[in-house]
């Protein structure tokens, strides 16, 4: 039985015992109602004021039973209330300590600052992609929802150094700033960049002028949801088939997918040309593009020589992509080193 129900049950039994004691003194000793109530109260509370009126043998037996039962009920209530209070506090303390240890062990995770409508969509997509996700938000209501879902979180202001340090930002791979206010996103990006120079940061901007400020603050990419939404609406009118194809290939709803894999130092394909690597014959994948540092080469020629850190954008089935990633020493859809930046498709 839940603790609050046990406490309510105990209070109900105590009230019933008080009524029983009052009626007992009225019926056994013929006491007046107030004297009966007062005698019941001092008996149950064991204050030791003495008898309010003379007691017969039957009254003495009734008082003894009332005293023993009342004392036991009081002990039960006090113990249960103390257990509920102390247990709840200890659970919170141990929960915070356990969560802090878990976050401290996270490596290469993604930090999402803000768990509003956009933040929820970001977290859902990152989880679907198999990423480790940690959310930073200061809303107690949103934090409670994250706890119920089992999503790691840090409660606090995302613009504060201490909050991002508790999110283990030094070991994070990426950060998404999707707070509702552009100014807060600017401060979040500034703080995050100062704490982790290699962090890949994507931020939301509602105003066009804010995009420039956020990039100057240190963001790698800035997303204007209104501009993207408008472009998507236009593309759905002009190129609906292409839009559906890219949506399906990126969402994982079909077996054919676009993905990326990074060439590792000393990897089996590093140093080979695309012709020598023969990705299509060996894994059945099409190489759509290659990113080297900030330069993106679309439809690279067969003589293009792969180097460590190059990110290959490939198209094929999930099984083919998995086999290719394992051969390159990556997990499915992993980006590799922090220096390898996601390719803007």
Q: What would your notes on this structure say?
A:
With 345 residues, the chain is of the alpha/beta class. Helix content is 54%, strand content 14%. The strands form two sheets. Strands 3-2-1-4-5-6 form a six-stranded parallel beta sheet, sandwiched between helices. A four-stranded antiparallel beta sheet has the order 7-10-8-9. Strand 8 and strand 9 form a beta hairpin. 28% of the residues are buried.
List its salient traits.
elongated, Alpha-Beta Plaits, alpha/beta, 6-stranded parallel β-sheet, 345 residues, Rossmann fold
In short, what is this structure?
By secondary structure, the protein is of the alpha/beta class. Helices cover 54% and strands 14% of the residues.
Blueprint (SSEs and pairs):
Elements: H1 3-29, H2 33-45, H3 57-104, E1 110-113, H4 117-128, E2 133-137, H5 140-149, E3 153-155, H6 161-166, E4 174-177, H7 182-195, E5 200-204, H8 208-217, E6 221-223, H9 225-238, H10 240-251, E7 256-262, H11 274-277, H12 279-283, E8 286-292, E9 295-298, E10 311-317, H13 318-328
Parallel strand pairs: 1-2, 1-4, 2-3, 4-5, 5-6
Antiparallel strand pairs: 7-10, 8-9, 8-10
